[in-house]
Amino acid sequence: MTLLAVERIKLFSTRSPWWCMALAIALTVGMASLIAANTGDQFPLNVAVTQSFTDFGMVVIMVMAALAATTEYRFGTIRATFLAVPSRTGALVAKATVVALLAGVVGEVVAFGSWGISKLIKPNVDLAINSTAEWRNVAGTGLVFMIAALLAVAVGILIRQTAGAVAILLVYTMLVENLIGLIPTLGQKIQRWLPFMHANNFRTADGAPVTDGPGAGSQLDFPFGPWGSLAYFAAIGVGLLVVALVVAKRRDA
Amino acid sequence: MIEAIGLTKRYGNTVAVDDLSFTVAPGRVTGFLGPNGAGKSTTMRMILGLDRPTSGKALIDGKPYAQLDRPLRTVGALLDAKWVHPNRSARAHLQWLAKSNGLPARRVEEVLEMVGLTAVAKRRAGGYSLGMAQRLGIAGALLGDPQVLLFDEPVNGLDPEGILWIRQFMQGLAAEGRTVLVSSHLLSEMALTAQDLVVIGKGKIISQSSTTEFIERATENSVLVRSPQASKLGPLLVDKGYTVRTDDDGSLSVTGATSDQVGDIAGANAVVLHELSPQRGSLEQAFMQLTGDSVEYHAEIGK
Predict the structure, then answer these.
(1) Rounded CA gap, B276 and B300, in Å?
(2) Assigned CATH for B221-280
(3) CB-based contacts of B243-250 (< 8 A; 24+ apart in sequence)
(4) Is the pLDDT of residue B269 over 60?
(5) Among A9, A14, A81, whose Cβ lies nearest the Cβ of B87?
(6) Counting CB atoms within 10 angstroms of each CB, which of A91, A211, B128, B227 has the fewest?
(7) H helices then E strands: how many in chain A?
(8) What is the ipTM of this complex?
(9) By residue range, what is the domain housing residue A61?
(10) Mind giving me the DSSP string for A89-112?
(11) What range(s) does the ABC transporter domain occupy (chain B) (predicted)?
């Protein structure tokens, strides 16, 4: 508990996490309002559509999570941390936990905010969250954000440099996973095992088809159902964090 | 008490720290002296468990750093005053440190007061001058009221007032019975601050002794002799086993002998002297000589 409190003080005593959280929420909810305002007969609004741009918020939160690790290396505070808490694993697990919890909260705000603003803009459209698939799509966002944050903290610990870590995370989530699908025949076979595809599968499986946005195109033949996909995504996030912890323990600080 | 036992750090083929063994006693300021790149910082980081030694170990009160429970209560360290997030306030920085070792919030205010930063504790640490940053670092080191303190080049870049403050501060800490290890590349500074010296060069130990002993041993004592009969006196001194060098102006510089001995020889042989004066080398010269590049020299010292 002490270590969690330490990481909480560290995170909230600088401004960048606040900016990242505000940006994540504003960006996603803003995009959702634009979409909602422009839906109509040809492009009907539904619960899934309100959630099409939550990935934007997720990417911003991943940047925040990576920064939580890389700024410590950038400014040498990681050494101050390891002096105060020689058990590096404990200190880094606490950091990952605090960041992940925060990401989870932001994920819920982003999801329900996007849904809420759409409801406000188009009060006549039925946006009630009825089915379990719809609940998973909206409320599941927090879980996806949490795991994405764990993964980003792990990358931050491994790379140690802000520019490198952020570049890897952005290029991977925004481009690599989607573009791999363009490789003939092989592409989709690889894609069905990629982590963020599974994050999408968890949220959108068995739901209304998403016709636009980053959530689209998930017509892959996934090896798991939605919860299996979430477990797979979580396993990758936690696995990468374990690798990062082992590396950090061995490395000179 | 700090003990280094056969501490070695290798980066690929380069040996940064080579089989260092020394102890740092409580109640005294011990200077850790060596030129830049001698391995002082690496050694301190290994003592503090930040860097993993290739072989050997470092113990603090008989335990490796990693096994200390709430280590800030046992060891305080200032390795780099810049290890602070520039957008975090000094108070917040000390608060998380205090929290991590179960120290009360009141202790943060105490150490801020001690180093004179109370008035600026709310300001972001990135805006601090070097002197203020150094004080913040010292506040962090003192947070747990530790018995063992390590400072890496604490006076680097400070103005004379700051240097004096730190010097007196460290001596005060040692006077309270604490173990204080201070690294520096300046012998002149250490001569004023430290009672004991651990001297290293190229990662190897050169000497461990008291400061006065070290300076006496290190500074070359020679006798300057001016005489119209220098050419007669020179061979006489060489016969006695002293080393004699003839300078450009014809004066002799004799090492290994005291001025009394040179005077006696001159008198016994009826040599007229115009000058007979003992010379003392500067601390800097001595230090350069001891830690210079000459590998043979290191070997000689080791005997």
Answers:
(1) 30
(2) 3.30.70.100
(3) B250/B226
(4) yes
(5) A14
(6) A211
(7) 12, 0
(8) 0.87
(9) 2-250
(10) HHHHHHHHHHHHHHHHHHHHHHHH
(11) 2-227
**Contact list, A83 vs chain B (CB under 8 Å):** 48-50, 71-72, 77
Q: How many residues does chain A have?
A: 253
Instruction: Read off the pLDDT of residues B148-174 as tens digits, 9 standing for 90 and up.
Output: 999 999 988 788 988 999 999 999 999
- Which residue type occupies A176? V
The partner residue sitting opposite A9, judged by closest CB among B65, B86, B95, is: B95
Nearest to A24 by CA among A64, A52, A51: A64
A85 in contact with B at a CB cutoff of 8 Å?
A: yes
Tokens 């001016």, located at residue = B226
Q: Which two tokens stand for residue A251?
A: 């490395």
Q: Which CATH number fits domain B2-217: 3.40.50.11420, 3.10.129.10, 3.40.50.2000, 3.40.50.300?
A: 3.40.50.300
Which two three-digit tokens encode residue A115? 């849904």
Q: B83 in helix, strand or coil?
A: coil
Q: Which two tokens stand for residue A88?
A: 């590096």
Task: Tell me how far apart the alpha carbons of residues A57 and A103 are, in angstroms, rounded to a whole number.
Answer: 10
Contact flag B100-A2 (C-beta cutoff 8 Å):
yes
Q: State whether B50 and A253 contact (CB < 8 Å).
A: yes
* Ranges for all domains in chain B classified under CATH 3.40.50.300: 2-217
- Looking at residue A22, its amino acid is A
Number of H helices, E strands in chain B: 11, 13
Instruction: Count Cβ–Cβ pairs < 8 Å, chain A vs chain B.
Output: 78
Report the number of distinct structural domains present in chain A. 1
